[in-house]
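Question (not urgent): is this output format expected?
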Amino acid sequence: MKIRLYNSLTNRLEEFRPLTPGKVLMYHCGPTVYSSPHIGNFRAFLLADLLRRFLEDQGFDVKQVMNITDVGHMTDDDEDQGEDKLQAEARKQKVDPWKIARMYEDEFRDCLDKLDFVMPHALPRATDYIGQMCAMIDTLLEKGYAYQVNGNVYFDISKFPEYGKLSNKVLDELEEGARVEVNTEKRDPRDFALWKVDDKHLMQWDAGFRDGVRGFPGWHIECSAMSGDLLGEQIDIHTGGEDNMFPHHECEIAQSEACTGKPFVGTWLHVKHLMVDGEKMSKSKGNFYTVSDIFGKGYSGHELRYALMRVQYRQSMNFTLASLNEARTAIARVNEARKRLARIAAGVEAGGADDLAARSETAETAFVGALCDDLNTSGALAAVFAFVTEVNKAAPDADGAKRALAAFDRFDRVLGVFGPTPEVGVDSVPQELLELLERRQAARAAKDFATADACRDEISRAGYQVVDTPEGPRLERV
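Got this back:
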């Protein structure tokens, strides 16, 4: 099937065609490591992971880079004003900004692991690419796209007429919207910083470009330098949250294309903002959740992943704690079906005569078709649960169970929400637990639910769970 993606640059669905057939170069805006990552961040990060998984499922050789911003991201994203976010947090906590960066980078990496991400091929830190940034700044100065004032270096957007083509903001509109309290060093209030000089900034480097003064890089130049060094001058896909479209991605395009004279990115994908309890996420409203907050409430990485991926990335999404409970129920339903198939495939449970081959193929076709349609995860999940219903109605033989399990394994390789196939074996269940199971059944038949629940709880304390099936209850080790 042909993969169609909505390209933010052209504002239309397009068939995805990489620069080199069979190979995909992808860059994704990662975290600014000045605080704990929140669930809104992770909706954007999950798009990158899903895209990587699906492209590989479709046979592409993917190289994926996600950056770590550990310097240069100012507290006012729309201007080169304010204070560096790392330095602001370091001042607040009264520690070294390098320590802040490493602490939150470690937390971010831990979250990636717990949410079952496929690790990017590179997670470069901005501070490790100062030399590459300086080389780009030198080229922009040499070509006349940048200028220096008091050591600061700015990109001159008047020299790049296509500035605004991603966000659909023409230069006149940008000028009208420019702030009154402008930086008088700039030739134009819309020009953006490539290099900044500030004696108070704790993270500084010797500038490696002509007439350079010791300072630190602007936020936008970092991504262009890391992408260019690790992936080359042109890449196939760049993703990020819709809030990154302007000014960050717009600036990336300008400085990268000014340097190389070539189109920077073929396809831009942008994720819609995440709403929480029907409102914008805000600490003051009490609806702000970090990933660690969700873990602290007893939910797993797979449950959070499912809750954040259940709606297609370009659609508005409202996150609630109830959606995590729904995710838990949905995952359990899939894994109960997988567990039954695994028992049949292993000969632990009697099967029937259904081979499930045709139904498995139909499910996979529907699943892939949904994701080929601009990564429609809600459609893909609908295909998964339609298959669960088919499986639960069927009486598969061992080979049919194995074929269906292979389909479920594929669904998880792409979505990453269900976990590995549950392991089953021929356990020797203690006789006293089997007797408790019989007592539970007798109590249920007599409508003595208090006794039935007590038996179930005692079984649970012994490390087993009761699984009710059409053929009767059985015990499984938890």
